[in-house]
Design goal:
The complex is a heterotrimer of chains A (348), B (264) and C (274). Chain A has 14 helices and 9 strands. By secondary structure, chain A is α/β, with parallel strands linked by helices. In chain C, helix 3 packs across helix 7 and helix 11 runs antiparallel to helix 12. The chains are: A alpha/beta (348), B mainly alpha (264), C mainly alpha (274).
Chain lengths: 348, 264, 274
């Protein structure tokens, strides 16, 4: 018995491999390789697209801009549509990794609000169509924080020792300290960065943890009283736990975008543009915004969503407010400086 | 004494299964958050079966894990026998090479393999993924089989030869059964590693080929969808069911049972 | 018995998929990308000698060592119990030992967070007993717990596989000759199981040094380990040269320390057998 089962196993395995290989060649539709963040689309939308245009979609997911960038940069993959964030788009444009979009194939781009076009990462609006956007702010538990939250400085208040959750992300956490000190989140000034470093080292004993997506569960469960979070997640957290409230500090903050782009490796530019256009269709864009819960840059979507959400400054803050907000820029060589600072804070 | 031992084993199993229990419980939670229990639901299970991406990834994961662990076991067992018979210096050299995939952080292994594939124009996909998995599984098989070889009584093999067995036959009848526990251990560990690997898989796979780990890790920014808990629960129950079936089948046959006990 | 050729496919495999990539890593670690092209440099290695990086290295090695020792202490008795005649179906028990590891690592770690947090299950239980809640999560202990949890099977299985075939007559003989149980263990069982122990230690210690997700999630990102550092270099700082240099140093440190263990084992090799 012992001797026979490996052979049996091998036979089944050979069969499965044959099956896998053959299943690849059956389809002669155009295959579109789409690369998006995990859980960042209403999956039924993909099926609709496939049916409508007779194109097969290979849908893959990534967890950080950096993972995605290394993968695409290496040249081993052949994705047709990517969903990177602002600073990564800037970097990819700089390194000539993206194709210019043909807007004749993307008529639905007209629905994107004007204020979300021609942004710093794509000043000529040649490469990207925004998908979702948001801000970074402080979420706090009203039963534990009995004062108005108006400034980043509250994250340095010793009253809340071991009650504070920071983001485990170099850019975001250093950015918060820079803003608290009144500097730009994109600063390349070494003195300003040094000041931010000192501030974060001073803050470290007060911090309960540097967290990722687990911040949501922690705040909902009331494990901490203050946390730095993305606005889209804040909407969801407030909904799960009504004791939570979101505040955008007076020193301003970060404004971020995830947008759709086509990398140079794409062999199906027209189909990729069709896909982007489809994602901007009002009905489809609404489905996605509704599923994800983040803020949509789409004019028609804003007419369709729950008016209560639209009125909520967490998701859709007033225009005037956003003017002083920084969109992350690509730091280029200065990434190493930021990384060094982050290591020094963490190793302290 | 026997009771004490049983209690100890029970505690260890509790330690191993406590998180699994939590994970299963949350697959029935109506809320997406692990922080709130907002009622019982089977919704995530229905959602799961609608999710084409997850289903395909499950298939890839199982195929890759099975293929890579079996192939690593075959290559690795042969290698272990060879290494066992090597001279001291050569053995040391080969062993250090063997340790490298274990020592190297996943990200280094993953990126360097990716560069190798890209450089040699080897298309990234299911096959490159398989090669990568076999590579990082091999050391674990070797490390499981080698101790068994060291334990082996050298006279056994020679006795078999003296009695007229061909070398192949002697291996098959004498050595292989003796080192079987090591081989099975190695295969189990290889399978486990393969199922669980994220970083190396991420960098060595191509467009359209995802594993479950890749999907789950990619959810990290948005929060892991409870669909995954539902999937894990089903997988867990399936494995358990298979174990029970195998158990019943072997216990139904007394002679067979004794034999399989020996082989382990 | 000359069976060296059996390892040739493996050697070829390793040269292709381990040695070549390793050369690549080495190449990165000693070069610098400047405007004019590549330049040889040892600056990356020198940089690693700075105190903050050495601090990270010692912390990683320390946590990995503690986890390895704990795994051995918890795992050896478990392997003995599994190898003994206490359960009717040993193979099922062994299987049950690895099955939890087939559930995704992230899910398991998140589940641990649910257990350990301030208002988590363990603390709820403690306060139900009337005890004070403990700060369990986001501590070094939590990181060690995570490592032990994830690496325990890698310690138990190789030891079990060696113990399961120890000649029972040997133990009985020792007992007949008047040795008590403890002496039998020390003089007979332990030396015989040593190769398995060495494999177990290797398979736990080596990956534990470079793990980074556990420290990020259970340590709350406060305990930077060498794995985090390397990941940061490759993905965030884009400093592949420095990342490669760190992993080269790591590799040498770990290989040297394991050669100490294997040396000890070699002295014992065969010594235990008759």
């Amino acid at each position: 018995m012992v001797k026979k089962w490996p052979i049996l196993l091998l036979i089944t395995l050979v069969l499965t491999t044959v099956l896998t290989l053959s299943s690849c060649g059956q389809d002669n539709r155009v295959v579109l390789n789409v690369y998006n963040w995990g859980d960042y689309i209403d999956e039924s939308v993909i099926n609709e697209f496939e049916k409508k245009y007779n194109i097969r979609v290979n849908y893959d997911t990534f967890s950080t801009n950096e993972d995605m960038y290394v993968k695409v940069k290496s040249g081993g993959s052949n994705y047709d549509v990517l969903f990177p964030s602002d600073y990564t788009i800037e970097r990819m444009v700089k390194e000539d990794m993206l194709l210019k979009l043909d807007y004749n194939n993307i008529p639905n781009a007209q629905y994107i609000e004007e204020r979300f076009k021609h942004l710093d990462y794509d000043p000529q609006n040649e490469y990207s169509v925004p998908y979702m956007w948001g801000t970074v702010g402080i979420i706090y538990n009203k039963t534990m924080v009995h004062e108005p939250v108006t400034s980043w400085r509250i994250l340095w208040d010793e009253k809340y020792s071991k009650q504070i959750l920071m983001l485990d992300s170099q850019r975001d956490s250093i950015g918060v300290a820079l803003k608290m000190l009144g500097y730009s989140m994109n600063t390349l000034n070494l003195e300003e960065l040094e000041a931010a470093k000192q501030a974060l080292i001073k803050q470290k004993p007060l911090v309960l943890a540097y967290v990722g997506d687990d911040v949501k569960d922690k705040m909902i469960a009331g494990e901490a009283s203050l946390a730095v979070v993305w606005s889209g997640d804040a909407v969801y957290m407030k909904w799960e736990n009504p004791d939570l409230e979101f505040a955008l500090p007076e020193e301003a903050s970060n404004l971020w975008f995830d947008a759709m782009v086509i990398p140079k490796s794409s062999k199906h530019q027209t189909e990729a543009e069709t896909f982007i256009n489809f994602m901007c269709d009002p009905e489809i864009a609404f489905k996605n915004a509704d599923y994800i819960g983040y803020s949509s840059p789409h004019r028609e979507v804003q007419k369709m969503i729950d008016p209560e959400l639209l009125a909520d400054p967490t998701a859709y803050p007033a225009d005037a407010m956003l003017e002083s907000y920084d969109i992350f820029h690509d730091l280029g060589e200065y990434l190493k400086v930021y990384d060094r600072i982050w290591t020094e804070i963490k190793a302290h | 004494m026997k009771l004490l031992k049983r209690c100890y084993a029970a505690l260890i199993y509790l330690f191993l299964y406590a998180p699994i229990l939590i994970l299963i419980i949350f697959s029935f939670n109506a809320s997406k958050s692990r922080a709130n229990w907002s009622g019982f639901t089977l919704n995530w299970y229905f959602e799961l079966f609608k999710d084409r991406q997850i289903m395909k990834a499950l298939y890839n994961t199982v195929v890759i894990a099975l293929l890579s662990s079996v192939m690593a076991t075959i290559i690795g067992t042969a290698a272990a026998i060879g290494i066992h018979n090597m001279k001291k210096l050569k053995k040391k050299l080969v062993m250090n090479l063997t340790y490298i995939p274990v020592v190297n952080p996943d990200i280094v292994t993953g990126l360097s393999l990716m560069l190798l594939f890209v450089f040699t124009k080897f298309p990234l996909g299911l096959f490159s993924l398989l090669l990568a998995h076999i590579t990082f599984n091999l050391p674990y098989v070797i490390l499981s089989v080698l101790p068994k070889l060291k334990q082996l009584d050298k006279n056994l093999y020679e006795a078999a030869l003296d009695l007229g067995a061909s070398p192949l036959h002697a291996y098959h009848k004498v050595i292989l059964p003796e080192i079987m526990p090591g081989i099975i251990t190695g295969m189990l560990l290889a399978f486990t590693l393969s199922v669980d690997d994220f970083v190396i898989s991420f960098f060595t796979t191509g467009s359209g080929v995802s594993t479950l780990s890749i999907i789950i890790y990619s959810m990290a920014r948005r929060g892991i969808n409870p669909k995954i808990n539902a999937l894990s629960t089903l997988l867990f129950l399936t494995v358990l069911l298979l174990l029970i079936i195998v158990n019943l089948r072997t216990s139904g046959n007394g002679a067979n049972k004794k034999r399989s006990d020996l082989k382990w | 018995m000359k069976k060296n050729w059996l390892s040739y496919p493996y050697l070829l495999w390793m040269v292709l998929f381990v040695f070549f990539p390793l050369l690549l890593v080495f190449f990165y670690s000693i070069t610098d990308r400047t405007g004019e092209g590549l330049r040889f440099t040892l600056a990356h290695f020198r940089r690693f000698m700075e105190p903050i990086y050495l601090k990270v290295l010692t912390r990683s090695v320390k946590l990995a060592l503690i986890s390895t020792v704990l795994c051995l202490m918890l795992g050896y008795p478990m392997a003995m119990i599994l190898a003994g005649n206490h359960f009717k179906r040993k193979n099922i028990m062994i299987f049950l030992f690895v099955v939890p590891m087939w559930m995704n690592f992230l899910l398991r770690t998140y589940a641990w967070m649910t257990l350990l947090e301030r208002k988590g299950l363990i603390n709820t239980f403690l306060s139900w007993l009337g005890l004070n809640p403990l700060n369990l999560l986001y501590t070094e202990e939590a990181v060690v717990l995570g490592m032990v949890y994830n690496f325990l099977p890698f310690m138990v299985l190789p030891i079990y596989s060696v113990l399961s075939k120890i000649d029972k007559n040997l133990i009985e003989a020792a007992g007949d000759l008047g040795a008590n149980q403890f002496t039998v263990f020390l003089k007979v069982i332990l030396p015989l199981s040593l190769p398995g122990v060495v494999s177990g230690i290797t398979m736990v210690f080596m990956p534990a040094v470079t793990t980074f997700v556990i420290s990020r999630l259970l340590g709350g990102g406060q305990f930077t380990l060498i794995g985090n550092l390397i990941e940061q270099q490759f993905l965030y700082a884009g400093d592949w040269s420095f990342g490669s240099a760190i992993s080269m140093v790591m590799m040498i440190v770990i290989l040297l320390s394991t050669s100490v263990i294997t040396k000890y084992e070699k002295e014992n090799e065969g010594g235990g057998l008759w």
